[in-house]
Each structure stands twice: as C-alpha cells, then as structure tokens.
Amino acid sequence: MRYLTAGESHGPQLTTIIEGVPAGLPLLSEEINNELRRRQGGYGRGRRMQIEKDTAQITSGVRHGFTLGSPIALVVENKDFTHWTNIMGAEPLENEEYEGKRSITKPRPGHADLNGAIKYGFRDVRNVLERSSARETTVRVAAGAVAKKLLSELGIKIASHVIEIGGVKSNEVAYKDAADLHTRAENSEVRCIDEDATENMKNLIDEAKKNGDSLGGIVEVVVEGMPPGIGSYVHYDRKLDSKIAGAIVSINAFKGVEFGIGFKAGSIPGSEVHDEITYTEELGYYRLSNRAGGFEGGMTTGMPIVVRAVMKPIPTLYKPLRSVDIETKETYEASIERSDSCAVPAASVVAEHIVAWEIAKAIVDQFESDQLDRLKNNIEDYRQYARKF
After folding, report:
1. DSSP label at 389?
2. DSSP codes joined into one string, 330-371
C-alpha cells in the first residue's frame, strides 16, 4: 500500500491517490468525511475551520460501495480558493499590477519558509508555505480513514487522545478498551479524558490566544487487536516501530516519538523495563506488562501498541518573532498567516490516521491481500498459528 498527496493550502483542491487497498472493502465517502470532521474540531482552532467543511469525493477505485483493488482517488475541495484565485491560480497573471501582491519575503521562524526558498530558489516564500502547510494533512487523514476501515474489518481498533497541552498534563485515567478511549476523547473539546485537565487546558489555550501566542503538547495513539510478529527484525527498513516513528515526525510540527514507557526506560533498571512473558491455551503468549508499547525487535508483540508524540507550538504567531527580509536582508517581524493558537487536539486525530496507515500497510505487505476475504482468512489463520505456537 502507498499513497501520494497533491495540492496547496489555498489552491483549488487537495488530492490523494491510494494504491494497494484490497478489493471488496466496503467504503463510503461518509465514512471518510466523518474522520475529516474530527480533524477539523478541537478547542483552539482558527477561522479557517469555519470556512472549510472538508468533504472527500471518491473519484476512482470504488464501485457501488466496494473497493475494486485499483487506485483510489480522493479529492477535497478548498472552498476558500474563490478568494485566492488570482494569488494561487495555475494560469499566468494578466494584470501586471497584481504581480507581487500577497507575496511573502519575510520567512517565519519554525516554518519551512526559508529553507524551502533556498532549496528551490524562490524569492516569494508563499511557494513554500502553501505546500508545507498542515492543510496537507487533510488528505493524509482521508487516506488514513481508508486504512482504519480496513483495520476494522480485521478486528483491529485504534484510538487517540491528548495527554498534555502547554505543560498541563492529564492524570492517568483508566479506560476499558480502545472503543471506550475513543468515545471519551470525542466528548472532550481538547480530546483529553481527564475532565479536570480538560478545563485547565482550555483556560491555557484562551490565555495563549489572548497573548497572540501558541501551544504545543503530547498526544497518544493506542492500537488493539494486532497479532504478534507484524514487521521484521531482519532489516532496519522493515521494522514497523521505525516506520511508525518516521511517519509520525513527518506530520507538521511533530518533533519526537516514544513507544510504551519511552524515554523513561533510560532512567530505570532493566528489571523495570522489560515485559515478562507468560502463556495460556486460550490466549497463547502474552506479556504481564506493556512497557515496550507493543513492540520488540521492530515487530508487534500482540500487546496494545502505545505511541506517544510531541507537537511543538505552531510557529505562526499573531505576536510574530523576528525574521529577515530575503530581499532587503533587513530585520523585520515575520509574516503572519491565518493560524490556530493550539492544534494539538486536531493533531491527535492526524496522528491516529498516520499510525493506522502504517499498520494497515504492514499487514497488506506481509499477507496475501488482493481480496479482502482472503486477507481476513490469512490473518485469522495466522492468529491461530501464533496462539498454538
């Protein structure tokens, strides 16, 4: 499985083409659109979310509600493009007086603006920021929604929540399973299942917005129902936890990843790090704890996968930091683009779909999967084999 995305933040549309999805998967556009709505929510989001009501149109690869095994194309229209036609249109400008309007020569600290302009030789950094914008995660979520649908057919559940914003941390709150975690996170405006922390996070976001500042945080993704041995230890580029880590830091503003107890493992003895193994005829092999977060040796253990990731504060500030005009080389305040004061709740939804994609891809790569029914049988046979091994 693989996918490509295309489109700019204020261009006419965003597009993704997905290849490798098994034939026979039931798939409706509304299932994708429900996930897109989740991405647009969350306390601290800016005005762009009031303009765009993202919906995906399936333009190929699905017939009468079922995938065909051929490439799936999904298109999300940017409704705001009507106000940006002269700025972002593909056709040459006829009105020379418009040339240079809305061009940007003051790169924003923390963004791709300056590095991208140097790399591609642009004097107008809008050519960079339009593609490097987190708006692109819209169609990555759409692709992840297809992956989530596939995982659900295989009995694999995934959920995400926020565990920290701006230094306000959620207490460890027990939940029954991934479905329960999902429901409780959806009921929080910041996707945090600790009600007290939720209110404190909202207050902090309000304060940051008032001050023209932004906040980052930490999100957690949990996956249940994975059989052991998905991934591989034999080559560095086949380790599934490595693929997930790389995919997570490819999300805009994400700066670090950990599995299970993560960085804490560097400060405690091995006897408090490694998960003891036991066996029953009913369950097969399982661990007495899950400090490894569902991975050993680049492969799944059969325990829940637990991934945490940190998102830095959004670098577009209404109280901008200093920058340098690339034309005059003079010091200025950086350019201001429409932005959010906090996108951590939405980012948890993005991370959920990024992880879903990597897990679905690993399964499709490991098992014969041209047809959904065959894939289901292959997975169930493998689960039985692993339990009796």
Report:
1. -
2. -EEEPP-----SB-HHHHHHHHHHHHHHHHHHHHHHHS--SB
The SS3 call for residue 93 is coil
Report the alpha-carbon distance of residue 372 to residue 378 in Å, rounded: 10
Q: Alpha-carbon distance 290 to 306, whole Å?
A: 9
DSSP letter string over 106-120? SPPTTSSHHHHHHHH
The residue extents of the domains of the chain are: 2-388
Mean local confidence (pLDDT), 124-153 = 96
Among 85, 44, 55, CA closest to 216? 44
Instruction: Tell me how far apart the alpha carbons of residues 180 and 182 are, in angstroms, rounded to a whole number.
Output: 5
Assigned token pair, 305: 């996968």
Query: Nearest CA to 112 among 307, 263, 316, 272?
Result: 316
Q: For 287, phi and psi rounded to 5 degrees?
A: -95, 150
What DSSP character marks residue 181? H
Q: Rounded to an integer, what distance in angstroms lies between the CA atom of residue 325 and that of residue 345? A: 33
> Residue 314 has what pLDDT?
86
Q: Which two tokens stand for residue 368?
A: 């014969």
Q: Which residues pair with 332 in a beta bridge?
A: 323
Which pLDDT tens digit goes with each residue over 64-82? 999 999 999 999 999 999 9
- pTM score, two decimals? 0.94
Find out whether 197 and 220 touch, Cβ atoms under 8 Å: no
Q: How many CB atoms lie within 10 A of CB 167?
A: 11
* CATH class given for the domain over 2-388: alpha beta
